[in-house]
Amino acid sequence: MFVRILLLLSISWIMSLTKPLFNIGEWVGVQNAAWLEKLAISGRDLILLVGGLFLIYKSTAEIHEKLEGGEHAAANAKPMKFSQVIVQILLLDIVFSLDSVITAVGMADHVEIMIIAVVLAVGVMLLASESISRFVNNHPTVKMLALSFLLLIGVSLIAESFDQHIPKGYIYFAMAFSVFIEVLNLKVKSRSEKPVKLRNEAEMPEKK
Prior knowledge:
With about 210 residues, this protein is mainly alpha-helical.
């Protein structure tokens, strides 16, 4: 919460991150003006690019550990220090907050309103975090779905860093549809221990 409020209070510095630092298109000899504009890299683009790559790496490594070598990796892995965990959480929060703060600047004229919104959002997250994390840990398929969402967000951050805007509605719809399907799977699994089998043509009664 404090990190996001500090970012809001430093709006002038945040907005300066949108100015291009260099242009990849000029390095490779691109002549098209539209592509030159898309390949211009700003400080915001660099942060989104690094954050997206980090998300893809962490989620891929977590999926590999859960599916391939969970027991062996757990036996040989060194426990992560508390300070390392805090630093990673802060870095990821800055990546997510940066884009939302820039968007919020265009939505509200008063910093006080944006700060109140941040405090309320963090309060909701604190109230729901324990129950959600407990539910995710108790259902391995939900955990895999959450990791796949991180992959999706990582790809969208990388696309945003190159000015390839993916409408948020598409991303939210994909997530909501996946969650809906997973809820159906959990309901079916809770009612029956045996998996549901789809009928094929051989099992269907012949039409007279």
